[in-house]
Amino acid sequence: MAMEKRSISRAKLGLLVGILFCSIIITLKITLTPTIVSISTKVSLPTTMSLKQDSHYYSSSSSPQPLLSPPPPPPVIPPPPPLQPRPPPQENKESTIEKQTKQSPPESLPENRIMCDRTPSRYDLCKISGPTVVDPNTFTFFELGPTRSTRPNLIQKIQPYPRKYEEYIMAHIKNITLISGPRGPTCKVHHNTTALVFSAGGYTGNFFHDFNDGFIPLFITVNTIFHDEQDFVIVITEGPDWWIRKYANLLHVFSKHPVVALGNDKSTHCFPSAHLGLISHGFMLINQTMLPNSKTYQHFHDLLHQAYGQGHQMRPTSRPRIVLVSRKGSGGRVIINQRKLIRVMKQIGFDVILFEPTLKTPLEESYALISSSHVMIGVHGAALTHSLFLRPGAVFVQIVPIGVDWAAHAFFAKAAGQMNLEYIEYGIGVEESSLVDKYGKNSTLLKDPFALQRNGKGWPTEIMDIYLKKQNVRLDLVRFKSCLKEAYKKAKLFMYQQEK
Ligand SMILES: *[C@@H]1O[C@H](CO)[C@@H](O)[C@H](O)[C@H]1NC(C)=O
Ligand SMILES: *[C@@H]1O[C@H](CO)[C@@H](O)[C@H](O)[C@H]1NC(C)=O
Ligand SMILES: *[C@@H]1O[C@H](CO)[C@@H](O)[C@H](O)[C@H]1NC(C)=O
Ligand SMILES: *[C@@H]1O[C@H](CO)[C@@H](O)[C@H](O)[C@H]1NC(C)=O
Question: Boundaries of each Glycosyltransferase 61 catalytic domain copy (predicted)?
Answer without folding.
Answer: 285-397
